[in-house]
Amino acid sequence: MSVSESHAKEMKSAFKRFTDFPLEGEQFEDFLPIIGSPVLFKKLINAFKTHLEEKFGKEKIDYIAGIEARGLLFGPSLALALGVGFVPIRRAGKLPGECATATFTKLDHQETFEMQVEAIPFDSNVVIVDDVLATGMSASATGDLIKHVGAHILEYDFVLTLDSLHGEEKLSAPIFSLLHS
After folding, report:
1. Residue-level pLDDT at 1
2. Record's Pfam families (predicted)?
3. What's the domain range around 53?
4. Cα–Cα distance between 168 and 165 in angstroms, integer?
5. What is the CATH number of the domain that holds 42?
6. For 114, which of 79, 99, 122, 159 could close a Cys bridge (C-beta 3.0–4.6 Å)?
7. 3-state DSSP call for residue 103?
8. What is the per-residue burial (b if ≥16 Cβ within 10 Å, else e) of 81-112?
9. Under 8 Å CB-to-CB from 143, ≥6 apart: which residues?
10. Residue of 136 and 29 predicted with greater confidence
11. Total-model pTM
């Protein structure tokens, strides 16, 4: 399933682009205006929901795992629409209890993501979501967390993939992206 050409164009035009953010020479693709529009946000959630139900059926997905920060913004809505659980993937120190950790290099520094180890039962099926697939480092670290607890990654889903950065090469499961740039 793909988003209709008119919906894709509408969503892509809603992205705000920021030059020299977060570092000089970088261009940041901000999808927050989509969330700010109830019409576009509903289209976004419905596009993901339709894709996942067509690909996996209504019973196979157990959890949506949303990557901080923007995967935390639309992941819960998608999980609710699918009738499955939601699990946040957060930066270190943001979650209580026993957490699994994965460290990766992002731009010019190292980051650590965490997930509560009891959040996803062993042998569960998980879809990982985030706004943009760029280098694939944060998504790959999230995949490591999911595998650490013995769960299965069905797919990585993104609103936008920056194709020139080849982030999909770092991921251990299929990817789906609504938009490409």
Report:
1. 42
2. Pribosyltran
3. 5-180
4. 9
5. 3.40.50.2020
6. 99
7. strand
8. bbebbbbbbbeeeebeeebbebebeeeeeebe
9. 128, 153, 156, 171, 172, 173
10. 136
11. 0.92
